[in-house]
Every structure is written in C-alpha cells, then in structure tokens.
Protein: histidine--tRNA ligase
Organism: Taenia asiatica
Amino acid sequence: MQNRRNEAYSEQQVQELGKRIASSEISEQSFVLKTPKGTRDRNPVQMRVLEQVFGVIQDCFKRHDAVSIETPVFELKEVLTGKYGEESKLIYNLEDQGGELLSLRYDLTVPFARYVAMNKIMSIKRYQIGKVYRRDQPAINRGRFREFYQCDFDIAGNYGLMLADAECLRIIYEVLRDLNLGDFVIKVNHRRFLDGLFSTIGVPPEKFTTTCSSVDKLDKATWEDVKQELLQKGLLPETVDLIGHYTQIAGGAEVLDKLETDPRLANSTDIHDTLREMRTLLDYCQAMGIVSKLKLDLSLARGLDYYTGVIYEAVLIGFNCDDKRQSEKVVASAPERLPSSKKKSKKKSKQEVIEVEEDFGATEGAVGSVAGGGRYDNLVALFTPNSLKVPCVGVSFGIERLLAISEMLARRRAATGDTSDSTIRATETEVMVIVAHKGLIAPRLQLAQELWDAKIKTAFSHKAQPKLLDQLQYCESTGIPLAVLIGEAELQRGVVKLRCISTRKEREVTRVDLPAAIRSELEALRGGAQQ
Amino acid sequence: MQNRRNEAYSEQQVQELGKRIASSEISEQSFVLKTPKGTRDRNPVQMRVLEQVFGVIQDCFKRHDAVSIETPVFELKEVLTGKYGEESKLIYNLEDQGGELLSLRYDLTVPFARYVAMNKIMSIKRYQIGKVYRRDQPAINRGRFREFYQCDFDIAGNYGLMLADAECLRIIYEVLRDLNLGDFVIKVNHRRFLDGLFSTIGVPPEKFTTTCSSVDKLDKATWEDVKQELLQKGLLPETVDLIGHYTQIAGGAEVLDKLETDPRLANSTDIHDTLREMRTLLDYCQAMGIVSKLKLDLSLARGLDYYTGVIYEAVLIGFNCDDKRQSEKVVASAPERLPSSKKKSKKKSKQEVIEVEEDFGATEGAVGSVAGGGRYDNLVALFTPNSLKVPCVGVSFGIERLLAISEMLARRRAATGDTSDSTIRATETEVMVIVAHKGLIAPRLQLAQELWDAKIKTAFSHKAQPKLLDQLQYCESTGIPLAVLIGEAELQRGVVKLRCISTRKEREVTRVDLPAAIRSELEALRGGAQQ
C-alpha cells in the first residue's frame, strides 16, 4: 500500500532524473556496473571481520603507549617524488584541474616522514591504519589490489640501541598471538651485516643492491635459480658459493656465536658491530619473552632502498589449509612497505598467497608473510636536510592477508557449526521486537525505544504488516539470538513473550523487567556457547 | 652513544638517497612542506576525539541493527556522472594513465546506490563512515575542506509508510543525545508538500526548483532578501507573499491541524496526502519518545535535486560560545549530503560555522546544522533502470563539525582543570615503568612485558639511560596516572614502588601483586575523578 504510494510520488522525479541522464554524454546503459579495476567493496560480514581484526591490532598499539595520526589520502606530488625508485610509475596522479599537482599516497611511511618533518617532531610512537594506492597490475585472486589497507606502527626518535627495535618485534608478537591465526616465526636480519658480508666475500660495492634483490628471492625461488642469476650479474663463482653458504644460515643465538668465530669474517668491524647489536636485540627480546619466536635468517633481505639497520618479517607457519572440499578462496595482499617487497609479489608462488579452493588446495603448512619492517634512519632527513636527524624503526602488517585469513577461518568455524563464533554475523543485534499479529506499529516502536534506551541492540520490522514467520526467519538468518513477541492481549496485561530463537522456548516477562531478563538470557547463551 | 653509531651507519645511505633526489627533476628544497590545499593531518589528540565521536555514532548504528559496508575511494567516472548537477565540476578526476577513467567519490550516497544496484540488494540498513572529496574553494577557518569525513546511515527497501523515516529521526536523536553537545532540534518538512504548496499558490512547475533553492536560504538570509530574489526570478508578488506566509509556519502537530483546515490548500490532494504522512510520522516519533525534539518547519527545503519525501535537518541550539577570551577556533564543515546544501555553504554566515576566537567570538546561542537527510526513492533506479525500485531514506551527519565542537569542548574542559575528562589525552596509557637509576634495560622490558600480558597499557623510556625526572615529566605531560619505579635493591627483594603521579604517593608492592594493585589504583582514581 505504502509502496504504491511512494511510486506514485516519484513519477515526476524519475522523469527529471531521466532527463538529466539523457542530457549528459553518457547514457545510463553504456557502462558496466562495477568497482574500478583492482578495487572492491567490502560487504557487511567482511566489515565485521575487519572491525575485529583492527580492534585487536589497535588494542595492542594502545597497550604500547602509541598515539595515532591521520594524513590525507593524497599528497603533493613532490612529496612522493624520488622516494620509490622504479615503483614511481605505479603512483596514481590526480588530473591537473588547475592548482597543485597531487598523487594518491603509495604507502603510509612517506606521509609519516613528511608529517614528522613538517611538524618538527623529535620523537613519536604512532600508528596509522589507512588505504594506499598502487597502479599495479591487479591479481585479485592472488590478493594484489590497487586499493588496499596498510597498518603501520613506527617509533621515531634518538633512542638507545635496539630498544625501539625490540618493541617493534614485541608488537608483531602480540598482534599475531592475539589474532590467533596459528603459530608464527619472526625472521630477523641486519642490513649492515649483509653489506659487511658482501664486502668481505668479494661482492663489488656497486653490486650490493642487485645482489640483495637476488638474495631476497630465496624464500620463493630455489638456490639454483638464485645462483644462476647471481652469476649472470657477473659475480665470481666463489663469491656466489659463499653467498649460498651464508644465506643458508638461520637459527637462534648460536648463529651469532658461529659468525663471531668465523675466521673469514674476523677482519670486518662492520660485521662485528652488527653482530653485537643483534646480540643486544636478542637479549631484549629474551627479557620481553619473545626470543623463542625469533629466527636469525641471513637470507632475509627486504631490499636495500630504504632500511639502515635491523630488518624483520613475520611468517605464519601453523596455517594449514587441508580441507580441499571447501571452495573458499583467500585473497590477500602481501605486506608491502617497500618497493622491493613489491617486486617479490610479482613472482608466482604457491607459498606467497594462501588459496583454498576446489581445484587448488593450499599445501599443508602453507606459509604467508604477514608483517615486515625494519629501521630506516634517513627518510625524515629527506624532508628536512638541514635539521637534526630523526631515526625511525617500524613495522607494517599485511592487513589484507590477515583479513583474508580471518575471514576464511570465520567461515570455516561457521560451517562447522561453531556457534560460539560471532564473526560471521553482520550485526551484533541482540533482540528483535516481533509483532504476533497485524499492525501494532506504534507499540512496536515504543518497545524498541525502551530497549534502545536500555542500550540493548534491537531490531524491528519496517513493514507495516509483517508476517510472524518472516520476522522469526529474519532472526535466524541474521543470528539474532532473542525475540520479544508482542500481541494485543499481552500489551493490555503489561507483559511480553521473551523467546530464545535457537531453543524456541518462550516465557512471559513483565515489561518493566524486560531489559534485565534479556541481559540474563544473553548471559546464559554466552555461557552455553563457551562450554 | 647509540645515536652516534646510528649516524655512522647511515652515511652511505644518505649519499645514495641524496643521489636519487639529485637525479629526479625536483630538488629537495623546491617545494613547501605542506599538505595539499584544503586538506590537513589530524594530530594524536584530534584522533582521540575522532575515535570517541565515531565510537558513539557506531554504537548507535549497531544498536539499530545496521550493517556496515565499505566502497573504494574512487569510482568509475561514469558512476558519478549526471548525479551532482552543476557540482560535477567539483569532482576530482584521476589522471588518465591508461585504462579506466576514475574519479574520487563526492559523497557516500551515490556509491551506496551503486552498491545496492550492483549487488541487486532489495533491502539493507547500512552505515558507512569515510572521506569524500570536493575540489571546492577551501575555507579552512570556516570549516570547508577538500577532503572531509561523511558519516551516513541509510535504510533501503520497500517498507511501511514512515517506518524507516521515523527510525532515521530516532538515529539523529540518539547520536546527538549521546554526544552530549547540548540541546538540539530536528527540523522536518516534506518535499512533496512543498511541491503541492507551490503549485497551489501559483508557482509555475518549471520554477519549483529555483523557488526551492531561494527558500532554502531562509535559515541564513532575511525574508526581505529572499523575497527580492523570488521577485527577480519572475514570481508574481502575491505568490511571493504567500511563500513568505507559509514558510514562516513552524511548530508541532498544531501546524498540521492549521494546514489541514486552510481553505487555500483544501483542493490539493498532494498536500493532504503529505499532511497525513507527516501526522503518521509524528505518531511514530511520539511512540519513540522523540516528538518533543521535532519541529515542522515549512522553510526547510534541502534542495529538490534528490529527495522525494520527508526531509530533515538537525540543529544544535544549546551551544553557547560565550567565552571570547579563549583564542580557540572551531573549524567544521557543514553536513553536505547534497549539492544543494553545498550551495548553502558558499554563503557567508555567522550562523553557519561556529567560531570561537579572539576577535570573532561566536554569538551566544550560535546555531549549527549537524545532520541532515531525507527520503530519496529514485537514486538506485538510475543504476538499474529495468529492475524493481529500491526506495531509500537516510541521514548524513556533519561529522567534521561534530568533531570540531567536540575538540573544542575537550580543550575547554582541560583548560578548566576538569581532570575527569580524558579526551584531551593522546593515549590511554595507564602506567609507565620507570627506572630509578642508570640502565636497568632488561628489567625494564621484562616488567613492561608482564604488564602488557596482564592487558595493562604500559609505557617505558626507549633511552638507554633515562633520567628519573624526565620519565616523571613524561607521565605528567601525557597524562599517565601511575608509575612503577624499579631499582636494583627493589628488584632483588621482588618488589616495586607504585606511584600515583598526581598525589606523588608511593607504596611498595610485591611484583606478583602488581597488576591487581595497578587496577585497584586506577579504579580509585576513576572514582575520585567522578566525584
């Protein structure tokens, strides 16, 4: 009835809007209804997972005395110029419509450095979660998007050796522990150690960078492939063999012992300085209870463009995707703080993206890098060349990948009937006000209002004459655990029926006691779900 | 000591980066370090206020069974084409770098309609908070930005007359009540009523839109100005007089009585239909306990481009900026859902933006529109002309203005020494681990770890040898209420000193009891602050 009325009202409006479309150059049918290439909408269930994952991460950052800042989605083009090397071609520029030339931010690190420099900040511990933009060839099913979230935590300031660095590792530990995505390991290396090593074993200084980018591929390519690449780059065979030898070294503090007593490395001050630094880092991580999660890994490179000290990368190792019958696909983008890690993701690799689908089940123990970072002491100085230096260290979480894995786990829990899990619901609604027979609009609204005022999350049907069955089905399909049924007779007696959707049990409650009764039912349901 | 080392390490890196800059066309000194015109960073304190305001608003949306979605920051250019009339020139386009033509979103409503159409959704109640972009002439101190937040709540679906509309008004009520920014009123009108009225009193149909946009100025301009404008637009003097007569009408249900019995309007079916609709709306608002906040106001127009039914706008009335000595400035952008409201904000007006500064104190009882919306039943159909219609009604909060007012109130509370207010702090940190004498790095980290694991928000100094006074001052300046002091002697005895920063009282606590002791101190401080 109302709908017909609404339609009648809008006839003229429809015509007006139709005219407007006709007068524009684009006809209403001439384009496909879609989001831009490499972007996507997030639906309500995905948003709930996002909210929960962001909540865990923010709680961790706040526990560590971090502040948060926000920067614009676009920056002056010059701010980004010269910061990303070859990757600059992937920057989105805005059309020159007069005025300043602007670009969409490519990461959160350069805007952070701009913020620190611009505000002459000498020390700050900040986090920022925001979308960044890369005009890369998208690979949606492999998790590479053109618009994706980054989630960064950085500590800027002139601080004691390894103190801020150790806290960043602790941050990675806490976030991955609290997200509960299975076991993980944090690989650690030192950029200056790699420089010292290369220098010592005969890599010419001008080939440090290119050697590093070959080594960087070792987590996905075989040594044989990397070896050939290094030989093609003109390194001597004995140097290449030594690279092969050292980049296989990985482990705990014993690695440091071994390297300190390595006669080949005995004469390099750089190497021994960095080894002492790494030992300090391990000591601090020991004090913070995370040393068992660390693995010194000399094959970790993370590029050379940017970092000046410790570098690290966290990998999920306990994440087994063994149920190949589920036709799920986890789409996730790699944590990309750096141009160099960008290059990585261009390489096809089963390990790189966790996929669970009908015909391409992920291998058991599939590994995904979900966080990475390191020390970068010179970026802020690029914006303030004549000022005091502001050294920085930070970590960036591969939030799209963490979200994708969390979504998949939530779907899996829902599929196995684990009702204690609420992540798969799109809302948190606790109760629906249901009318047992026709109409009762004002009483419906009045009861809803009483519940809202009692801070109870309450739904009601917007239909004038909703069917009882439809209302109950709405509860079931959206996971609302309780319903309050009202009818004329109950209203006159000042009572309502409180119904548990899953058990279908109903009991009469006086209206004044309703909020308390709902709370106790919810409490009981939560208790039952936990058992 | 460590700093010098860090510097030494980065020499080569600095040179490399310097070279990169030199090789680019832009020299490092050639641009001013700033954010793009019309944009800004948000600092940590502003972010805390934002988080709290968003929290209140999201709580309200969730209490009402709403889901949330997210859409990309840019859309295909065609999606936005033909939706904003003259305002289209304010859309930011991305540079054509090959591939699709893209534009930054101008509001959240058109992307929402695109989402509903694309996913063939027949009903949804969703909220979305996100930034939108308008290449308008910015007026930062009057609160007009080129990048600003919108916060939208919309109900789409074929529903009973006025049921969803009434819930939108309830949403406005709850948000403004819970944000605690003083008294407010929600002005309500009906777009079809205005059409019927104009038709009846002799406005030619082709002049409805332009008449409406003149009427729309009545909240800022005098009637005399609007009258002259209407006469210039060619309306007959007696018609203009009648517009003046009717647009002065405002009030509660008695307005409907008056209009229903108005002999001049007796023959218009449209008018009497809409008056019955308005009465239904008032009935529902009565049931939801908000009718006292509503004011039927026939001068409310909100443009005609878009809306098809009820329209509304909320105004803060209790917001007095009477302390002119405070050199504060509240920058806030008007809630802009519509091109038409955009036009409004071009007009200079004291009422439009709340400003409190040395030489331009806001008048007492300054009024600011902080939310607006209405029914728009035809927008989704623009994307799916051959499908069933999906009627919509929604509200958009003037979130930048709400943030600016909240920031100002927080600063004011802080200035008056109201320590119970925590909004002005940049962090939520509860305790700082402080070393009483040199070093003690590992013990410091170990204690911090114990507190983090106990979910206590804990800071520590990253300096190797921090001074006691510096650490205490850090607590005071950042508002950390408690400190845990450790020294060699205490460590050996398994105790620490727990210090209240404000009272300077210290007591010894055994290490194992520390988390509980901290919690009880925090509880006591909160209790004291509330008294």
